[in-house]
C-alpha cells in the first residue's frame, strides 16, 4: 500500500481533496468499496473503476475502507494538502468475517444515497446461492430482487416493473449486449468467474444511461491479479470453466482470460454413434454453447491507464438425419471495448472509450441438393466520453457524450441448389445514428437533504427520419435521522431500437429494428417514492418503494403478422400505451453468520392498443395484461455460515401465475380437407380476449451446501438442489383431443394438459483456485 501526495493549495475554507483508488491485493479495482471518515460522519463509495473523492477540512483523521470479502483497512490521515491515495485491501482469511466486513457500512451507504431502485450484486453472493445444473447465473440471481419478474420456468429473462424484455439495457464494460442469454434463455452469457460486480437500476436512472425504458444492468469484468499468476475454474454437471489471470508488468498491468463450454454435444454424439445402425433410430440434436471473456489493463503513468475488454459467445444447434436433412442454427454476441482513463487532478477524471458490439443469428437447412438459410444481425460502433468532477464535498458533477452507428440486417434470406438452377436472396439492411449528451449533479444541500438532477439530450436518425428526446432525471433524499430516510425520483426515457418478436420470450430469432417511418421511438416516464430504515443497530435495512410508470408508442403486432424476410415490416406494427404500478417491500441483512434478504412485490401491468391501420387493434381496444404481469411476487434468500468450511444456502420463490391466452371453446365444421377422419367435423378453437387466463401460481425451493477444502480454503465442492420439493410448475398448457374408440375414433372432448420443464435437479460442482 502506498500513498502519493500531490502539491496542493489550501482552499478558502481550509478544506482539501482526498482522492484515490481502492484495489484488492491482486490489483483488481473494487467498485462500491466504502470509504468513511467516522469522526466527520461522512464518506463515499468507489465508482465502477474503484476511484473515489472526498473534500474534508484540514486535520488528523482515521479513514476506514470496507469491501465484502476483504479485511477492513484503517488509515491515519494528516490532511494538510490535497492528497491522492492508492489503497490496497487484503482478502479476508477468516471466512466468518466475510459477511461481517461489509456490514453496516454498505447498508448505511444505501440509506444515505439519493439513488432509488438500485441493487448491487456481488459475485461472492451469487456463487453461494443454489443454481440450476450448478451453473451460477447472475441474471437469475437478479430475479430474486423485488420488482423483477422472470420470463418463465428456468429462464434468465428480466421483466422489470412492467417492462418487456427488450426494454432492459444490458451493458458489459460500457458495451451493449443485445442477447444476454444462452440455451434459449435458460442461462445468461456472463461467466461468473470473470465478473466483478453487477448493478441493476430500476428507477431514478443516472443521466449517463439511455436508450431503454425499464432497467439498466451494468456488468463490470474483473481486471486480473497484478501480483501473481492464478488459475480458477470449476467442473459442473453440464459445463466446465477455466480462468487464467496475472500481471503483465507487476503493479502496473494485468490480464484475465476466462472460458466456459457445455458438453451436451459430447454425450449426444456418442449416443448417436452407438445407435446409428439401429432401424428407425432418430438421432438426438447436437447442442452446445461456449463463451470467452478477456480483459487487460496497463498503467501508462501516474495519471493514465488503458483497458481492453473482449467477449465472444456462441450457441450452436445442429441436426443431421440419415435421410439427408441437415439443420444448423448458430447465434451469439461479439464485442470489444478500448478505454482510456485519465486523471487531470484529484477532483477531475475522464474515461474515453470506443467499442464495437455485434449480435447475429444464422439458420441453415439443407436437404439433398437444396439449401436454404435465413439470418439477422445488429452491429454497433460506439464512441463515448464521461467526465467525473468533484469540486467539493457538496457537489459531484458528471457529464459526457456518446455516439453510435447502428447497422441492422433485417431478415436476410438465401436459397440455392447445387446445380445452379435455384439461386436467390432477399432481405433488407438499415442504418441508424444514435447520439446523446448528458450532465448531472449530486448536490448535498445539508446533512438532511441530498438532491440529484440530470438532463439527457438524445437523438436518432434513420433514413429520412430524425428524432430527438429531452430526458430529465431527478432524485431526492431527506434524512429524518441517521437511521431513517425518505426518497423520491422521476425519470423520462426514450428507446429508439425495438425487438421484433412474436413470442413472450426473448428468442435467438428475434430481430432488432430501428425507429423509422411509422415506427416512432418508445417513451416512458416513471415516478417512485419510498422510505428506508436501518433496524437493530444497523444490521438490517428495510425499504419500501412505490412506483408508477407509463409509456407511449409501445410496439406490438397485427394478428398473423409476417415477421421473417419482410421488406415492409413497418406495416405489421401496432402502437399503443402501457402503464404499471406497484409496491416493493425489501428487508436485507448483511452482517453475522446468517445473511440474506426477503422481498415482496405487489404490482399491476397494463397495455392498450386501440383500433388502427385497418385492424381492431388488440382486444378491440380494451385494456389487457401482458404475459409477464404477476400480481404477487415473494422471494426469500438465506445464507448461513456454519464454520470456516461449511455454508448452507436456500432460496424460495413464489409468484402469481402468468397471463396467457387459451381457447374458450370449439365448434365443428364438416367437410374440411385435412380432418382426421372423413366423418369428424374439424374442431375450430374460439379465442377470447388476449391474456384473459392465468396459469397456476409458481413456487420453488432451492437448497445448497458449499464445502471448502484445502488448507487455504481455495477449493470448494458445491451441492445444489433445484426445485427441492419437486414442484411441477407450468411451462405452458396445451389441449389434447379425447377420442371415442367405440365410435369411429371421433373426438368427444378436449382436455387441458400442463407441460412442466424441470423436476427436482441435484447437481455437484467442483470449484478451484490455484
UniProtKB/TrEMBL annotation:
Which PANTHER family does the UniProt entry name for this protein?
A: HEMOGLOBIN AND HEMOGLOBIN-HAPTOGLOBIN-BINDING PROTEIN 1-RELATED, TONB-DEPENDENT OUTER MEMBRANE RECEPTOR
Q: Which UniProt keywords apply?
A: Cell outer membrane, Membrane, Receptor, Signal, TonB box, Transmembrane, Transmembrane beta strand, Transport
Instruction: Read off the InterPro entries from this record.
Output: Beta-barrel_TonB, Beta-barrel_TonB_sf, CarboxyPept-like_regulatory, Plug_dom, Plug_dom_sf, TonB-dep_rcpt-like
This protein's membrane topology, according to the annotation, is: Multi-pass membrane protein
| Record's protein name | TonB-dependent receptor
Q: Which organism is it from?
A: Hymenobacter saemangeumensis
- Residue ranges of domain TonB-dependent receptor plug in the record: 136-212
Q: Where is the TonB-dependent receptor-like beta-barrel domain?
A: 281-723
Q: Which family does it belong to?
A: Belongs to the TonB-dependent receptor family.
Which subcellular locations apply to this protein? Cell outer membrane
Recorded hits in Gene3D superfamilies, A to Z, give:
Carboxypeptidase-like, regulatory domain, TonB-dependent receptor, beta-barrel domain, TonB-dependent receptor, plug domain
Instruction: Tell me which Pfam families the record gives.
Output: CarbopepD_reg_2 (PF13715), Plug (PF07715), TonB_dep_Rec_b-barrel (PF00593)
Amino acid at each position: 500500500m502506498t500513498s502519493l501526495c500531490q502539491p496542493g493549495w489550501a482552499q478558502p475554507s481550509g478544506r482539501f481533496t482526498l482522492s484515490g483508488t481502492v484495489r484488492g491485493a491482486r490489483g483488481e479495482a473494487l467498485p462500491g468499496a466504502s470509504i468513511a471518515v467516522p469522526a466527520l460522519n461522512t464518506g463515499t463509495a468507489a465508482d465502477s473503476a474503484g476511484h473515489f473523492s472526498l473534500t474534508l477540512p484540514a486535520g488528523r483523521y482515521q479513514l476506514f475502507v470496507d469491501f465484502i470479502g476483504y479485511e477492513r483497512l484503517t488509515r491515519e490521515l494528516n490532511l494538510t494538502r490535497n492528497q491522492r491515495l492508492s489503497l490496497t485491501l487484503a482478502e479476508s482469511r477468516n471466512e466468518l468475517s466475510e459477511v461481517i466486513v461489509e456490514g453496516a457500512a454498505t447498508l448505511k451507504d444505501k440509506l444515505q444515497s439519493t439513488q432509488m431502485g438500485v441493487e448491487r450484486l456481488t459475485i461472492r453472493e451469487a456463487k453461494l446461492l443454489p443454481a440450476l445444473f450448478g451453473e451460477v447465473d447472475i441474471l437469475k440471481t437478479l430475479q430474486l430482487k423485488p420488482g423483477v419478474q422472470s420470463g418463465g420456468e428456468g429462464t434468465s429473462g428480466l421483466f422489470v416493473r412492467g417492462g418487456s424484455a427488450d426494454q432492459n439495457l444490458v451493458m458489459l464494460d460500457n458495451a451493449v449486449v443485445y442477447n444476454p442469454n444462452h440455451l434459449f434463455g435458460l442461462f445468461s452469457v456472463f461467466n461468473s468467474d470473470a465478473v466483478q460486480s453487477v448493478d441493476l437500476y430500476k428507477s431514478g436512472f443516472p443521466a449517463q444511461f439511455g436508450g431503454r425504458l425499464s432497467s439498466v444492468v451494468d456488468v463490470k469484468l474483473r481486471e486480473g491479479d497484478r501480483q501473481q499468476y492464478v488459475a480458477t475454474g470449476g467442473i459442473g454437471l453440464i459445463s466446465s470453466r477455466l480462468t487464467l489471470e496475472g500481471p503483465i508488468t507487476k503493479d502496473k498491468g494485468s490480464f484475465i482470460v476466462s472460458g466456459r463450454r457445455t458438453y451436451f454435444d459430447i454425450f449426444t454424439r456418442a449416443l448417436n454413434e452407438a445407435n446409428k445402425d439401429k432401424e428407425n433410430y432418430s438421432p438426438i440434436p447436437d447442442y452446445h454453447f461456449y463463451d470467452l471473456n478477456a480483459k487487460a489493463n496497463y498503467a501508462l503513468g501516474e495519471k493514465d491507464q488503458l483497458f481492453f475488454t473482449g467477449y465472444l459467445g456462441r450457441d450452436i444447434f445442429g441436426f443431421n438425419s440419415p435421410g439427408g436433412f441437415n439443420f444448423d442454427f448458430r447465434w451469439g454476441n461479439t464485442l470489444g471495448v478500448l478505454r482510456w482513463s485519465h486523471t487531470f487532478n484529484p477532483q477531475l477524471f475522464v474515461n474515453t472509450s470506443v467499442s464495437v458490439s455485434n449480435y447475429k443469428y444464422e439458420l441453415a437447412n439443407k436437404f439433398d441438393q437444396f439449401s436454404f438459410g435465413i439470418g439477422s444481425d445488429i452491429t454497433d460502433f460506439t464512441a463515448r466520453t464521461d467526465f467525473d468532477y468533484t469540486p467539493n464535498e457538496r457537489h459531484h458533477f458528471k457529464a459526457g457524450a456518446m455516439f453510435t452507428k447502428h447497422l441492422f440486417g433485417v431478415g436476410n434470406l438465401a436459397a440455392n441448389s447445387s446445380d445452379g438452377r435455384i439461386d436467390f436472396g432477399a432481405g433488407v439492411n438499415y442504418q441508424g445514428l444514435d447520439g446523446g449528451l448528458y450532465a448531472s449533479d449530486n448536490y448535498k444541500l445539508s446533512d438532511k437533504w441530498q438532491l440529484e438532477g440530470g438532463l439527457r439530450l438524445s437523438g436518432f436518425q434513420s433514413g429520412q427520419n430524425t428524432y430527438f428526446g429531452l430526458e430529465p432525471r431527478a432524485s431526492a433524499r431527506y434524512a429524518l435521522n441517521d437511521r431513517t430516510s425518505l426518497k423520491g425520483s422521476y425519470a423520462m426515457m426514450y428507446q429508439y431500437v425495438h425487438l421484433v418478436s412474436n413470442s413472450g420470450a426473448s428468442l435467438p430469432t428475434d430481430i432488432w429494428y430501428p425507429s423509422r417511418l411509422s415506427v416512432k421511438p418508445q417513451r416512458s416516464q416513471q415516478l417512485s417514492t419510498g422510505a428506508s430504515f436501518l433496524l437493530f443497530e444497523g444490521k438490517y435495512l428495510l425499504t419500501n418503494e412505490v412506483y408508477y410508470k407509463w409509456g407511449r408508442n409501445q410496439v406490438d403486432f397485427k394478428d398473423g403478422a409476417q415477421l421473417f424476410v419482410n421488406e415492409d415490416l413497418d406495416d405489421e406494427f401496432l402502437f399503443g400505451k402501457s402503464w404499471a404500478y406497484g409496491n416493493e417491500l425489501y428487508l436485507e441483512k448483511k452482517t453475522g453468520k446468517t445473511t440474506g434478504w426477503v422481498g415482496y412485490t405487489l404490482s399491476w401491468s397494463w397495455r392498450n392498443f386501440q383500433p388502427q391501420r385497418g385492424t381492431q387493434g388488440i382486444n378491440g381496444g380494451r385494456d389487457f395484461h401482458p404475459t409477464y404481469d404477476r400480481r404477487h411476487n415473494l422471494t426469500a434468500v438465506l445464507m448461513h455460515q456454519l464454520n470456516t468450511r461449511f455454508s448452507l444456502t436456500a432460496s424460495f420463490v413464489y409468484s402469481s401465475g402468468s397471463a396467457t391466452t387459451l381457447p374458450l371453446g370449439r365448434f365443428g365444421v364438416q367437410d374440411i380437407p385435412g380432418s382426421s377422419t372423413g366423418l369428424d367435423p374439424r374442431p375450430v378453437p374460439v379465442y377470447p380476449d388476449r391474456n384473459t387466463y392465468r396459469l397456476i401460481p409458481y413456487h420453488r425451493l432451492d437448497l445448497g451446501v458449499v464445502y471448502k477444502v484445502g488448507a487455504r480454503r481455495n477449493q470448494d465442492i458445491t451441492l445444489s438442489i433445484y426445485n427441492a420439493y419437486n414442484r411441477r410448475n407450468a411451462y405452458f398448457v396445451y389441449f389434447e383431443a379425447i377420442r371415442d374408440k367405440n365410435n369411429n375414433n371421433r373426438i368427444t372432448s378436449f382436455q387441458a394438459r400442463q407441460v412442466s420443464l424441470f423436476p427436482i435437479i441435484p447437481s455437484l460442482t467442483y470449484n478451484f483456485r490455484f
